Amino acid sequence: MNAEHVVIGIDGGGTHTRVMVCDLWGHVLACAERGSASIYKDKQAAQNVQGAITDALHLAGRTTEQVLALVAGIAGYDAPSDLDWIAPLTKLPGLTCPIRHVNDAVSAHSGALLGRSGIIVIAGTGSIIVGITEDGQFIRNYDFHHYAASAARFIAYDAVYEMLAGSFDDTDHHLLQAMLAHWSVPTVSELAAIAKKGFTEDRRERDKQFGEFAPAITEAAAQGSTAAIRVCNRAVDQIKVGIELIAASFAGVEVEVAFIGSVANSPYFLQELGAQLRQGNNKRYSVVEPKFSPVIGSVLLALKHIHIPIDDALIDNLHAYNKPWQNQ
């Protein structure tokens, strides 16, 4: 190992792939961003990931031969068979270092809690709740066949259905107008006509369009929209259930919880989730700020893989980096 050696961390958990090149002392040398790493969101997923790696290495002034470890957190890695499409994402000529692929929630937990036990809630482009217990158990709400429908696209679908079902009142005027503008129609009946045809044929494009409308819903909830509050509270309730399911496996009476993602970190969700967790069933919950973004979580996992100590000096060096991707 020498000053030219680096590790690579990848966050492929949202609408964009984020790649970070870091030296062995925690200095961030370069970052790059391209489209989604998920084949379910972008047909060009492999080109996106490989291109972002190439870009980041070029910016860092490093070659593939100087990379000692790479960890990629990829959304949709839920079973061993998923490696059939995930492993090719990071195949680059000359990249012969150990490569570890994990679910993006593993990277997010690593960055948020720095290896401590606790629970993270991801609600943004996707939705998952993950805990690591004091004895190292890795538990997902998925393991219980539980899903908290709190991803951006899901709360948007839910809000649109509420409006089309006529479940709105005067408090929802601004939300309704925003919704009609988003789908470029003047009336609810015309929105219904689009809906009856499935909105748009391409599922990726449809999900993207709905996901982009989610901020209007969380903002409307904060401003008192009855329909938006109803939609958001359903998602909050499901998140609370997922947290409690996982927390039951912790030995201690207090469990740290961190929120990641645009939905989970919207003012309305932060307020309501905080209130719900103050009335915990299984544990006492301590809501904490994530220490680092998921891409730095992948960097930390890569450094650990080659037995680099994660000491205070290294953490300070990472903190010196201005993190534009935190909590997205």
Give a brief description.
The protein is an alpha/beta fold and 328 residues long. The chain has helices at residues 45-60, 83-86, 104-113, 152-164, 173-182, 188-196, 203-222, 226-247, 267-277, 294-305, 312-319, and strands spanning 6-12, 16-23, 28-35, 67-74, 99-103, 118-123, 127-132, 138-140, 254-260, 284-288.
Can you walk me through this structure?
The chain is of the alpha/beta class. It has 11 helices and 10 strands. It has a 5-stranded mixed beta sheet with strand order 3-2-1-4-5. A 5-stranded mixed beta sheet has the order 8-7-6-9-10, sandwiched between helices. Strand 6 (118-123) and strand 7 form a beta hairpin. Helix 5 (173-182) packs antiparallel against helix 7 (203-222) and helix 7 (203-222) crosses helix 8. The longest helix is centred in the last third of the chain and has 22 residues, at 226-247. The model has no long low-confidence stretch (mean pLDDT 93).
Cα Rg: 21 Å
Query: How is the largest sheet built, in terms of strand order?
Result: 3-2-1-4-5
- Oligomeric state of this protein: single chain
Order of helices and strands: EEEHEHEHEEEHHHHHEHEHH
N- to C-terminal separation? 33 Å
| Structural class computed from helices and strand pairing | alpha/beta
**Low-confidence stretches at least 5 residues in length (pLDDT < 50)?**
none
* SS field, number of helical segments: 11
Proportion of strand residues: 15-25%
The helical percent reads 40-55%
Shape: globular
Largest sheet: 5 strands, mixed
Q: Number of DSSP strands?
A: 10
Q: Compute the average pLDDT.
A: 93
